Amino acid sequence: MSSRTTIQLDREAKLLLERLKNEMGAKNYSEVVKRLGAEAKSLKKSELGSLPKLPSFEREKHDRIDR
User: What is the pLDDT of residue 58?
Assistant: First the structure.
């Protein structure tokens, strides 16, 4: 059996957790927090190659004006 603890949340955070729980179809708030944590730690899809028609970036010879 896992141990349990209580955390304090403001009303807005509680409502957000409730909404996410319903959207995710989660059984409880613990499942929501675990999913959010796993999502935050996972690597995001690379944007490399998402705009293949975009020309490659080339820095201008004088790209800065020094005063």
Answer: 76
pLDDT over 80 (residue 61): no
pTM exceeds 0.70, yes or no: no
19, part of any domain? yes
Query: What is the residue range of 18's domain?
Result: 11-38
Q: How far apart are the C-alpha atoms of 17 and 23, rounded to whole Å? A: 10
How many domains are contained in the chain? 1
CB contact at 8 A, 25 and 35: no
Q: Is residue 44 part of a domain?
A: no
